[in-house]
TrEMBL record:
GO terms for biological process: synapse organization. It comes from Habropoda laboriosa. Pfam families: ig, V-set. The lineage of its organism: Eukaryota, Metazoa, Ecdysozoa, Arthropoda, Hexapoda. This is Lachesin. PANTHER family: DEFECTIVE PROBOSCIS EXTENSION RESPONSE 8, ISOFORM A (PTHR23279:SF5), DEFECTIVE PROBOSCIS EXTENSION RESPONSE DPR -RELATED (PTHR23279).
């Protein structure tokens, strides 16, 4: 846990001053481009104010319901007569990762830190970078798109830098795509022949492509 020295300040004192509800998550993971909310819950606030500070540059972002930064992606959110003070981050980027501290204006101020990790979409092909497939068996390539704000509108497969034609005379080529938090695209090529060897690339519409090299072998691969 970070900043253990101040941990004792997060618990209620005998004078029933303000304190933090520490059941609120302190590790938050968000996606690049998708709005993130960092929530701070304060008990017995009284006439004090709640601020959000970014540790990376000790930058005061919000005070109460007012936003103090010129970066318009950040905004303070609070519903009157509730205990939650929220820092809203629109269009987050990887560089926004780090520690954000919710502070109460006591003397001295007390704080509660939340660690934010912003991740960007990743394209993976299972079993890569090289796959060895027996001749006449089925080539089964699975491409996974993770951490995308929304599923890709399209995933294009190519073989040796040429888009795969599912209506080609070769036949036996099919594609199964399932969209969700993790989108999968499975390319199936039946009765593999030597010409099916080469570089296969999965190209989602909303993130980087990834490739795998397929080797068609006669019988079992010799180690």
């Amino acid at each position: 846990r970070l900043f253990e020295a101040g941990a004792f300040q997060e618990w209620p004192t005998l004078d029933a001053g303000p304190y933090f509800d520490t059941t609120v998550p302190t590790n938050v993971t968000g996606l690049v481009g998708k709005s993130i909310q960092l929530v701070c819950k304060v008990k017995n606030l009284g006439n004090r104010t709640v601020s959000w500070v970014r540790h990376r540059d000790i930058h005061l972002l919000t005070v109460g319901r007012y936003t103090y930064t010129s970066d318009q992606r950040f905004e303070a959110k609070h519903i009157p007569h509730t205990e939650e003070w929220t820092l809203w981050i629109r269009y987050p980027q990887k560089k926004d990762s780090g520690i954000y501290e919710c502070q109460i204006s006591t003397t001295p101020p007390i704080g509660h830190s939340i660690y934010l990790t912003v991740v960007e979409p990743v394209t993976e092909i299972a079993g890569g970078p090289d796959l060895f497939i027996n001749k006449d068996s089925t080539i089964n390539l699975t491409c996974l798109v993770k951490y995308a704000p929304e599923p890709p509108s399209m995933i294009v497969w190519s073989h040796n830098h040429e888009a795969i034609n599912f209506d080609s005379p070769r036949g036996g080529i099919s594609l199964v795509t399932e969209k969700g938090p993790v989108t999968s695209s499975r390319l199936l090529i039946q009765k593999a022949i030597e010409k099916d060897s080469g570089l296969y690339t999965c190209s989602p519409s909303n993130t980087h492509a990834n490739s795998v090299r397929v080797h068609i072998v006669n019988g079992k691969r010799k180690l």
